[in-house]
Structures are given as C-alpha cells and as structure tokens.
Amino acid sequence: MTEVVAHITGTVWKIQCSIGQHIAEGEVLIVLESMKMEMPLESPVAGIIESIHCAESQPVNEGDVLVVLRT
C-alpha cells in the first residue's frame, strides 16, 4: 500500500480518481487549491485506488493522507 499525502495546506478543489481505478505513475489524483493557486497531486507509483480519505471542498493540512494505492 502507498499513501499519497497532501504536499501543501489548502482545500481539495477536485478529485480526479475513484476507488478501484487503475492509476499510472504521475497521473493526477487530486487538485488542491491554496492561496488561489491550483496544484495537482500526482501518483508516485502505478496502482489501484484502494481508498480516498477526502472530499471536494474539504480543508486539508500538509501531510494528511488523501489517497491510498494498492501497488
């Protein structure tokens, strides 16, 4: 299992993946918004989305686990 964490404090602007989806390394999983800037959160590895631990419009802190991948 690989945990994908927020690299900044901000708000979840858009979730671009779903549970069970096959993901390639580098594919955008979530877009975070911080200080009016959108920042993509990319998958560090190829795998399958095991779980999503956030919702759109939810505030998150740097280091929060947002997605878990099964590799």
Short description:
This protein has strands at 2-5, 10-15, 22-23, 28-34, 37-42, 47-52, 59-60, 65-70. With 71 residues, the protein is an all-beta fold.
SSE ordering: EEEEEEEE
Radius of gyration: 11 Å
- N-end to C-end Cα span: 6 Å
Mean pLDDT: 97
Proportion of residues in extended strands: over 45%
Quickly give the structural class.
Answer: mainly beta
Helix content: under 10%
Tell me the number of strands: 8
User: Biggest β-sheet, characterized?
Assistant: 4 strands, antiparallel
Note the overall shape.
globular
Helix segment count?
A: 0
| Oligomerization category of the chains in this entry | single chain
The neighbouring-strand order within the major sheet is: 1-8-6-3
Low-confidence stretches: none
Summary tags:
71 residues, mainly beta, four-stranded antiparallel beta sheet, 55% strand
Descriptive notes:
The protein is mainly beta and 71 residues long. It is built from no helices and eight strands. It has strands at 2-5, 10-15, 22-23, 28-34, 37-42, 47-52, 59-60, 65-70. The strands form two sheets. The chain has a four-stranded antiparallel sheet with strand order 1-8-6-3, with no helix packed on it. Strands 5-4-2-7 form a four-stranded antiparallel sheet, with no helix packed on it. The chain starts with a strand and ends with a strand. The mean pLDDT is 97.
